């Protein structure tokens, strides 16, 4: 496998992760009827464009699109990391975005295969960042 093909494969994988994450949160919200908390909304603001931008980059065969994937993934990942810290109680916060009276991702029904949704989000952003960065390792890549 050539380096160019490996870069394209990494970009395809990054797009699949972003697309699956976007479809999963739409399913949770629209089909299951579970409202996202404030931090979940902020993370969606980074994940939804990832699926679109990476998909368009693949369609147009733009070898540089991975850099946008890295930036969006780092932004969403930072919010997800903060969310995981709040969820785990590592970061003390007087005003929690997830409350018992409003939308909450701290309930037992917000755990998928034993993993809380904020942690899944962090893993999704980390994976798209790594794969997007790997797609840029093409030696023929233009700066």
From TrEMBL:
Location of the protein in the cell: Membrane
Topological type in the membrane: Multi-pass membrane protein
Record-level GO cellular component terms: membrane
InterPro entries documented for this protein: DiS_bond_form_DsbB/BdbC, Disulphide_bond_form_BdbC, DsbB-like_sf
One Gene Ontology term of the molecular function aspect: protein-disulfide reductase activity
This protein's UniProt keywords: Chaperone, Disulfide bond, Electron transport, Membrane, Oxidoreductase, Redox-active center, Transmembrane, Transmembrane helix, Transport
Superkingdom, taxonomy of origin: Bacteria
GO biological process: protein folding
Transmembrane regions listed in the UniProt entry: 43-61, 68-91, 111-134
SUPFAM superfamilies listed in its UniProt record: DsbB-like (SSF158442)
Main location: membrane
One Pfam family named in its UniProt record: DsbB
UniProt xrefs under PANTHER family: DISULFIDE FORMATION PROTEIN-RELATED (PTHR43469), SPBETA PROPHAGE-DERIVED DISULFIDE BOND FORMATION PROTEIN B (PTHR43469:SF1)
Family recorded in the similarity comment: Belongs to the DsbB family. BdbC subfamily.
Name of the featured protein: Disulfide bond formation protein DsbB
Organism listed in the record: Loktanella atrilutea
